[in-house]
TrEMBL record:
Residues 79-125, 814-870, 889-908 are annotated as: Disordered. The keyword Transmembrane applies. The lineage of its organism: Bacteria, Pseudomonadati, Verrucomicrobiota, Opitutia, Opitutales. The chain crosses the membrane at residues 59-78. GO terms for cellular component: outer membrane-bounded periplasmic space. Residues 328-413 form the PDZ domain. The keyword Phosphoprotein does not apply. Residues 845-865 have a biased composition (Acidic residues). This is PDZ domain-containing protein. PANTHER family: CARBOXYL-TERMINAL-PROCESSING PEPTIDASE 3, CHLOROPLASTIC (PTHR32060:SF22), TAIL-SPECIFIC PROTEASE (PTHR32060). Belongs to the peptidase S41A family. Residues 79-116 have a biased composition (Low complexity). GO terms for molecular function: endopeptidase activity; serine-type peptidase activity. Keywords: Hydrolase, Membrane, Protease, Serine protease, Transmembrane, Transmembrane helix.
Length: 908
């Protein structure tokens, strides 16, 4: 069967022009073929995508322009009854290029005073209006799941959009939802798809802003009373995401009173005085109002259009021009800028860190903690003061073309005089984001530990007497790569496959006898990278099958006969391993090439997305230089070589380890409107799953360790603690009860921490390997010696790049976006099992909890400067499993296949 690595997506027949009362809607005739199928991460912001080279047939461009002209010149549909009730919306209807609305409602919301907040006007730009229409038309005509969404389905957008604004359902009232659904249910689809009119988004946002102002006024009036009443037996529900909005203002006040007490108690437990606790809460809600005031039309529009996109499935999205720009940075792991991590503190732009190897770091004039006051373009441009600007606008000022210069007027972070200023000139250049690249470790692992031979006789080789085997670990955060072959100016772009191959070569030079590919927290990436990485371990053959809306099935294969590594292999996964990660793990499992180890299952994302740039449909906007957005939408489902789908069910590991993540509401099956599971016939491939007898031997050995080793006992007790807290939906707002619970938890955490430090001393000796040069990362070499001591060489001039992700994840900042705009998920921190103490050191609130209880006396003293320095129960067990394979491999009678299933066969 002829296959191709990058399956070409053929365009499905597009629906005929929608019409109503003889009026034709915009008919999309996109260039064929569609953009490359895409495997996006299901976590956080959009992750990396698949790509494929394609050309735009010139013959279709006249049809495209003709379709746009017809849409722009055709008469508009008659107003619906709901439109007639909204004068501003009706007034905007005659033009599809710009819509303006004053945020008002036909029915006054309860208890909203006219003095609560100034009413703002939102104006839809011609570009946004056009993109709204294109989005709806594209989804209704080309989405894989298009048959399930009708115009009547758009009533769900109201609730979903309100939830996007008010996730804990505390600000809106149920009457707000009823009002908006009644007003917009019959007209929303037609307003957006035919007119590009998104006035409903502005109206709902304005109601949210008014409710927020009203609630903050209420908080300021009642904070002292709440502070004086912390001895009641009331409780606060910490997760209201699936609860209906309050029925009445009185019910809302009751909910907010308990939440206010909850926040005050959290501050008091962090050793703040009552006055300081109240001040911290006031500051938090002042910041909320400031953030709302800075929200612009584009922000509201993007959130609303993204909500519409999610009607089709959870992985479909609308990306604004800014978001799309950041998306491309994630894809390439590089940007053109100065290389600085920026944040906003009290209206000032503060340099949090410098990206190692970037222009700012190499120049040496800009320092961490410097405050940027003004920005000027070129060597003689005028300075623009940026105090009080949104971080996104600041980033736009600092980024620019490669080779251009930017001047920064900064207040030095170490200056004693607040009036001190220093001018810094930086030449923009390509900044490599090496902290997200693959890295490796070499571990010395005892072999033969707790292995049951096929005869059933048990052997127990302690680490002190058993010989050790060098086993490599390669950690891959994502399937990254550049959009084009070769980088700027002929430079070679880094890719996941290229980096993994280099690390394999480095580890083989050290004589490794086994390898673990760690895909935990890897949410996906480029499809061709997943195929190529699989090809590093197998001869040529099918890797993934894809099925389109029409039922057409295509097979994508690895075409290279070269095998980079032929020895025993394990793949370590968790619930956050998704999409491209599942393709690699599932394919290697189908071929019997690797044993899969980890959580009960992977994430379960079995769909393929395409990325469609709006500029392809609006060439005049592209020519103007304006940023245009993009639509990410599902176009295919993918299947493993044996025909199994990973959708919803994921890849089930051969050896399952206990995990906190098994008790979290994560995974594809938990997401709304996820596609259904199905299967297709197997394609031919030269492989077979690992023999059941061998798997049984390896499982028995692992289970024996899970039932006997103290580190698993430690892990299970952590899981039990977590489950107990997870089941507690209500938290007391009684200060003394909370203080007693805090002391109880602190004692437990202290005991866990002491045990964890003791377990860390038992970890295997290891050495780390990095691809980036020393000046571009902090840790050059981290080695744990056999005696448990650590040797670490550190580049003192650099900073730990792992902190970048933590800063980006802070909930209390407006937008912790760095100059690099690296917005990928924080993979290393995504797994509670990987760093179990993260859960123990968290507060008992949700993501919007104001603060964690004070743990200053529980500061961790163990050395954790190395990537593999912390206790990692799952990784350690995966190393033991590979060591078991190595030990069993010396007895040929253990293998039933002609060649060992965990060892790749060579191709003649």
């Amino acid at each position: 069967m002829t296959t191709q690595k990058n399956a070409v997506l053929r365009s499905e027949p597009f629906a005929q022009s929608l019409s109503q009362s003889g009026t034709h809607a915009l008919t999309l005739t996109p260039p064929l073929p569609f953009p490359t199928p895409t495997l996006f991460s299901p976590h956080a912001s959009p992750a990396l995508m698949t790509r494929r080279r394609h050309r735009t047939p010139r013959s279709l461009l006249p049809l495209l322009l003709l379709g746009l002209a017809v849409a722009l010149l055709s008469p508009r549909p008659a107003q619906s009854q709901s439109q007639a009730q909204a004068p501003r919306a009706a007034k905007a209807a005659p033009t599809a290029n710009a819509t303006t609305t004053t945020a008002t409602t036909t029915t006054a919301a309860p208890r909203i005073s006219s003095s609560t907040a100034d009413r703002r006007e939102f104006t839809t730009s011609p570009a946004l209006s056009t993109e709204a229409r294109i989005l709806v038309q594209l989804l209704s005509q080309a989405h894989y799941n298009r048959d399930t969404v009708r115009s009547s389905s758009y009533i769900e957008v109201i609730k979903d959009y309100m939830s996007a604004l008010d996730g804990q359902r505390m600000f809106f009232l149920k009457s707000d939802r009823d009002l908006f659904e009644k007003k917009h249910s019959t007209s929303l689809y037609w307003n957006v798809s035919r007119l590009g009119n998104i006035d409903a988004a502005y109206e709902i946002f304005s109601r949210y802003e008014l409710r927020a102002h009203e609630r903050v006024d209420w908080i300021f009036r009642n904070i002292d009373a709440a502070l004086a009443d912390l001895d009641s037996d009331d409780h606060h529900r910490i997760d209201r995401r699936k609860v209906e909005w309050p029925d009445s203002p009185a019910e809302a006040d009751s909910l907010w009173l308990n939440r206010l007490k909850f926040e005050l108690i959290a501050e008091l437990l962090n050793k703040r005085s009552p006055e300081k606790a109240a001040e911290a809460v006031r500051t938090r809600y002042e910041r909320l109002l400031k953030n709302l005031a800075e929200t612009e039309t584009s922000d509201v529009g993007e959130m609303f259009l993204a909500t519409i996109a999610r009607l089709y499935d959870p992985h479909t999205a609308y990306l604004s021009g800014d978001t799309f720009e950041d998306f491309n940075i994630q894809l390439k792991l590089e940007l053109v800028g100065i290389g600085a991590l920026l944040t906003v503190e009290d209206d000032y732009c503060v340099v949090k860190e410098l990206v190692p190897g970037g222009p700012a770091a190499l120049g040496g004039e800009l320092k961490a903690n410097d405050k940027i006051i003004s920005v000027a373009q070129g060597e003689d441009g005028d300075f623009l003061e940026i105090i009080g600007l949104k971080l996104r606008k600041i980033v736009d000022q600092i980024r620019g073309e490669k080779g251009s210069t930017v001047r920064l007027l900064v207040q030095p972070g170490d200056a004693t005089d607040p009036a001190a200023r220093r001018e810094v000139l930086i030449t923009r250049d390509t900044v490599k984001l090496n902290s997200a690249r693959a890295y490796a470790g070499l571990f010395q692992v005892p072999t033969g530990e707790h292995i049951a031979a096929p005869s059933g006789d048990a052997t127990d080789h302690s680490p002190s007497t058993a010989r050790t085997a060098p086993i490599g670990v390669i950690t891959l955060p994502s399937f990254y790569g550049a959009a084009e072959e070769g980088g700027p100016d002929g430079e070679e772009n880094s890719s996941a496959t290229h980096d993994v191959a280099r690390l394999i070569a480095q580890l083989q030079a050290q004589g490794i006898q086994g390898l673990v590919l760690d895909l935990r927290g890897n949410g996906g990436g480029l499809l061709n990278e997943a195929i190529d990485i699989t090809g590093l371990f197998i001869p040529r053959g099918p890797v993934v099958q894809v099925k389109s809306y029409s039922g057409e099935i295509r097979v994508s294969s690895d075409e290279s006969p070269t095998i980079a590594y032929t020895g025993p292999l394990a793949v370590l996964v968790d619930h956050f391993s998704a999409s491209a990660s599942e393709i690699v793990a599932g394919a290697l499992q189908n071929y019997g090439r690797a044993i899969i180890i980890g959580d009960r299952s992977t994430h379960g994302k079995g769909s393929v997305q395409a990325l469609e740039e709006m500029r392809r449909y609006v060439p005049q906007l592209a020519r103007s230089g304006a940023k245009t957005g993009a639509t990410k939408f599902t176009v295919q489902k993918y299947y493993l070589p044996n025909g199994d789908s990973t959708q919803r069910k994921g890849v089930v590991p051969d050896i399952i380890l206990p995990s906190i993540e098994d008790h979290l509401p994560i995974g594809e099956a938990e997401l709304p409107r996820a596609l259904a599971w199905d299967e297709i016939p197997s394609t031919f491939f030269d492989g077979a799953p690992i023999d059941d007898n061998l798997l049984a031997t390896l499982r028995d050995a692992s289970l024996a360790r899970q039932n006997s080793l103290e580190e698993f006992d430690y892990l299970r007790r952590n899981i039990d603690w977590f489950k107990q807290r997870q089941d507690e939906k209500l938290v007391s707002v009684n200060l003394e009860k909370r203080r007693a619970r805090r002391d109880e938890d602190k004692a437990l955490r202290k005991a866990f921490l002491a045990e964890r430090k003791r377990l860390a001393a038992l970890d295997y000796a290891y050495e780390e390997f990095w691809l980036s040069p020393p000046e571009e990362r902090q840790t050059t070499t981290a080695t744990k010696n056999a005696d448990g001591t650590a040797s670490v060489e550190i580049d003192e001039a650099a900073t730990d790049a792992a902190d970048d992700d933590a800063l980006l994840a802070e909930a209390d900042t407006t937008a912790n976006v760095n100059d690099a705009s690296r917005a990928e998920p924080a993979n290393d921190s995504a797994s509670p099992t990987r760093e179990i103490s993260d859960t123990l050191l968290a507060s008992d609130g949700t993501e919007d909890s104001p603060a964690s209880d004070d743990d200053d006396d529980l500061e961790e003293e163990e050395d954790d400067t190395g990537a593999y320095a912390k206790v990692d129960v799952h990784l350690k067990e995966s190393l033991r499993v590979v060591a078991d394979v190595i030990a069993l491999g010396h007895d040929p009678s253990n293998w039933i296949h002609n060649a060992p299933p965990l060892t790749a066969r060579t191709t003649p």
